[in-house]
Hints:
Layout: E1 16-22, E2 27-32, E3 37-51, E4 54-58, E5 63-66, E6 72-86, E7 99-101, H1 105-114, H2 126-139, E8 143-144, E9 147-149, H3 154-165, H4 173-179, H5 184-195, H6 199-216, H7 221-227, H8 233-244, H9 251-255
Antiparallel strand pairs: 1-6, 2-6, 3-4, 3-5, 3-6, 4-9, 5-7, 7-8
Helix pairs in contact: 1-2, 4-5, 7-8
Amino acid sequence: xxxxxxDQFDDVDRPVVAIGTDYPHGYLLPRHRHRRAQxxxxxxxxxxxxxxxxxxxxxxxxxxxIPCGTVHQVKxxxxxxxxxxxxxxxxxxxxxxxxxxxxxxxxxxLLVTAVNIAPEYDEHGRDGALIALxxxxxxxxxxxxxxxxxxxxxxxxxxxxxxxxxxxxxxxxQRWAQQLHMSIRTFSxxxxxxxxxxxxxxxxxxxxxxxxxxxxxxxxxxxxxLDFGYDSPAAFSTMFRRLLGSPPSSYLDAGVQV
Length: 258
């Protein structure tokens, strides 16, 4: 089904409902939740999914897993989506938190095909077999480190949000500790307890995710590297490749190969 709302078909007696939607560039889906879990796949463009626990950047031809009941908002940048809405007990092996997933070429084709299936498909026929295969493929997809965790503590949250508005690869934990009137040791423990990452790892993760958004918008690698405070584009590229396995100059292109 294309360009319809899940609420119209939420009570359909099928484990999965597939819907495809086209969004104008820059469209913001305000905070909402679904009774069903959602696999949100972007065939084109970039999506930014935000919950109270953090932000996930979803490159083209990747997907984000959103557990049932999770309050989230999504910013769409030139996105055409294919979504699977799954009954809460349809895939209990999936994680209880949001994750960006690497999508296999086979799953991409299954998702594109699934959105043309009638909501009350024959579970024992071809359409049912296609949906079942998509669920098997989904269970094997690898998670990617494209999540910026955010703390619950209001003081630390303000500092994190300031960093996300103006990222600096050389920002120091000492400066943050001083802002919070903590020793560096206390701050390090506190930061990890709030984000599940060490400060340096969080800073690096944030820079990569923010860089991906700018790369998708067409910004040059050199401009991004300098804006983020890296000593050189090569230093930025090395860090990017270490985290995601590909250099920034080719990461988005690599993600759309079939």
